[in-house]
């Protein structure tokens, strides 16, 4: 089932989300619906507040062709193709970004029509709880590291537009204001 995607200006996008305490059938269904919604919108990641739920849950699916490198990442201590863990549906993530800051263009399904350069650490160590109760410990770079940081920002009520340079913020401000009055 397709869910409506929360748009810029909706206060739920600005609230830190609550941890998920119980995994039940409803949560599994939510995961399926979030993936379906994300695919339909041609996104690679979607966080629960983007479908109106203030809980710490995220879905990600990065297609192979989007990944710039051969796409090997470390999963629970083993080298694996990034694709082998896709699609990802996880709750209560813990993220530890590290490494050099890297400038990359980002967009967001909740901030339509705006793309901007955002600086973030290029690598991430992450601990993700899957709905089946298993834990994924991931060490990665590339688009997955970028996407994990962007999506987990949503769980803190943060948007990528908060992280652009102060010069870019000036130009963005007007376009963001227009989004509110559309
Ligand atoms: Ni987003």
What is the fold's blueprint, element by element?
Layout: H1 25-40, E1 45-47, E2 57-60, E3 72-75, E4 78-81, E5 88-108, E6 111-130, E7 135-140, H2 142-155, H3 166-180
Antiparallel strand pairs: 1-2, 2-5, 3-4, 3-7, 5-6, 6-7
Bound molecules: nickel (II) ion.
How does this structure look, described?
The protein starts with 24 loop residues before the first helix and ends with a helix. The longest helix is centred in the first third of the chain and has 16 residues, at 25-40. The chain has a seven-stranded antiparallel beta sheet with strand order 1-2-5-6-7-3-4. It is built from three helices and seven strands, in the order αβββββββαα. The protein is globular and about 45 Å long. It has 182 residues and is α+β, with helices and mostly antiparallel strands. β5 and β6 form a beta hairpin. The model has no long low-confidence stretch (mean pLDDT 94). It has helices spanning 25-40, 142-155, 166-180; strands spanning 45-47, 57-60, 72-75, 78-81, 88-108, 111-130, 135-140. Helices cover 25% and strands 34% of the residues. It has a single domain, classed as Peptide Deformylase (Alpha-Beta Complex). The structure holds nickel (II) ion (NI). Nickel (II) ion (NI) binds next to α2.
CATH topology: Peptide Deformylase
> Can you count the beta strands?
7
Largest sheet: 7 strands, antiparallel
Mean pLDDT: 94
Which word captures the global form? Answer: globular
How are strands sequenced across the largest beta sheet?
Answer: 1-2-5-6-7-3-4
Provide the CATH architecture.
Alpha-Beta Complex
Would you list the SSEs in sequence order as H and E? HEEEEEEEHH
Q: According to CATH, what is the class?
A: Alpha Beta
Q: DSSP strand (E) fraction? A: 25-35%
In whole angstroms, the N-to-C terminal distance is 26 Å
Which structural class is indicated by helix and strand composition?
alpha+beta
Small molecules (ligands, ions, cofactors) in the structure: nickel (II) ion
